[in-house]
Amino acid sequence: MAEEFEPKIVAFLCKWCSSAGSDLAGVSRMQYPSNVVPITVMCSGSVSPLYILNAFNKGADGVLVSGCHPGDCHYIKGNYYARRRIALVKELLEYSGLEPERFQMSWVSAAEGTKYTEIIKDFVKILKPLGPQEKLRRSQ
Amino acid sequence: MVNLDDIKKEAHRILKEKKVKYIIGYTQGANGFPAVPVFIKNPEDADNLVWNPACIHNLTRFLRDEKKRRAREKHPDNRPVGIIVKGCDSRAINVLLQEKYIAREDVFVLGVSCEDTGVVDEKKLAKKLKGKKALCFDWDENRNLVVTTEDGKSTINADEVLAERCLECPAQSPVVYDILFGDKVKLSPEDRFKSVEKIENLSQKERWAFWKEQFDKCIRCYACRSVCPMCYCDECVVDTISFAVTADTTAEEKAQKIKWIDKSPVTSETYIYHMIRAIHLAGRCIDCGECERVCPLDIPIRFLNKKLEKEAKKLFDYEVGFDPDQLSLVSSFRDEDPEDFIR
Fold first, then answer.
1. A100 contacts A90 by C-beta, under 8 angstroms
2. Architecture of domain A9-130
């Protein structure tokens, strides 16, 4: 029997909220799919569009950017910048013909371990029927 | 109507008074080319200036060279540079001012209004003339292009030969200038983003098929980057080519020389190149269309920039190049920025 496709998700989590949120999910022993590769960044505002494109380029099937809720940013306004920038990247990716579901953004606070697991579960559920992402993957 | 003699007279005057170092303008090219960029230093040469519907080039790109030259010189001549700009080019000056790349006193802007027309699209015109060479052409009062070929005169309606960007232009007359030639006009095109909608209306699969075909043509000559007045970084992210890693290459060096994009022209790499180019121009591109003009493979690069211009307007109510004092698109935010896509 053919193995079921397991999508690979690259998640850029901000150090102060989302990363702590994923830690909370871990230490609370909440069950969630192991498809996600978390990368801690200092702030969601520090996520360059290049990181996102490169994750796809290196074979990610989905990319998640997650930061603090508006108003909660450790650097006061980093997530506001992220919100604007990511909106542009999302529009552009969609415009260029990539499945828009492959790229998501979320606000996860340090207390929202449950929300984090929900997001990952739903993301995997969305990505599975889409199949592997071949469009932007670098051919070897 | 724009009077060429006025432009020549003013150019002659400011050069004679030594107000400017030199003037960047347009002149008649060799081989019948109706307009090519020219640098004029002597007042007598001001007579060589031309103004016609073929003045497509965005001359603000040369301000970048000027800045670099000035930085190298030991005793630089700090007088301003005279530059002839159309409406779109003047917005490029505004963006450069906004980014503090140039100072207002570095340039002496000779603004020329496009009035109700603009510049011609070389390809559209060539198609109309069916291979015949245009010896001379100009706009008449009724928005018609009067072309003289070896067969005689003919007139073509402006809408048929105007560059697509001119049909969608929000600023036909310069928004920043020291001297203005022609009338100040403010036409509002019916639909500024008509060309983008053509692609937006395709299905997701068709869009990918369209862009894949376009990006696969790319030979990565970087002409679009070289011609862009906004691409002035000393170090470009796409240039991080492979470097030798030896025993004493520090981790820091490696971290700073990440190879983001492969040089090989395969779909995945050219895709990233064009995406990054477009994103780096978000809120900065003034739609002068130079990138598309110089592309040897006719990739419709303008559609990418125009899309981001549209989103900036739609999502953030951001207009490029009208106010040199506004904060740039990605270094500002509003509380009401949309976040319905965020979970």
1. yes
2. 3-Layer(aba) Sandwich (3.40)
State how far the Cα of B62 lies from the Cα of B227, in Å rounded to an integer.
Answer: 9
Residue B208 distance to chain A (closest CA, Å): 4
Distance of CA A126 to the CA centre of its chain: 13
* 8 Å CB contact between B52 and B84: no
Angle at Cα B233 formed by Cα B227 and Cα B239, nearest 5°? 85
Interchain contact, A87 vs B311, CB within 8 Å: yes
What does DSSP say about strands B36-40 and B81-85: parallel, antiparallel, or unpaired?
unpaired
Asked if residue B84 lies in contact with residue B177, where contact means CB atoms within 8 angstroms, the answer is no
This complex has an ipTM of: 0.92
Using an 8 Å Cβ cutoff, are B120 and B162 in contact? yes
Length of chain A: 140
Beta bridge partners of B342: A105
pLDDT per residue as tens digits for the range B291-340: 999 999 999 999 999 999 999 999 999 999 999 999 999 999 999 999 89
Domain residue ranges in chain B: 1-119+169-190, 120-161, 194-334
Q: Which pTM does this prediction carry?
A: 0.90
Cα–Cα distance, B113 to B86 (Å, whole number): 6
Phi, psi at B61, each rounded to 5°: -60, -30
Subunit contact A88:B308, Cβ cutoff 8 A:
yes
CB B167 within 8 A of CB B189: yes
C-alpha distances in Å from residue B66, one per residue of A8, A35, B97: 48, 52, 15
Backbone angles phi, psi at B232, to 5 degrees: -115, 5
Interface of B to A at Cβ within 8 Å reads: 199-200, 204-212, 237, 260, 262, 266-269, 271-272, 275-276, 278-279, 282, 304, 307-308, 311-312, 315-316, 329-333, 337-339, 341-343
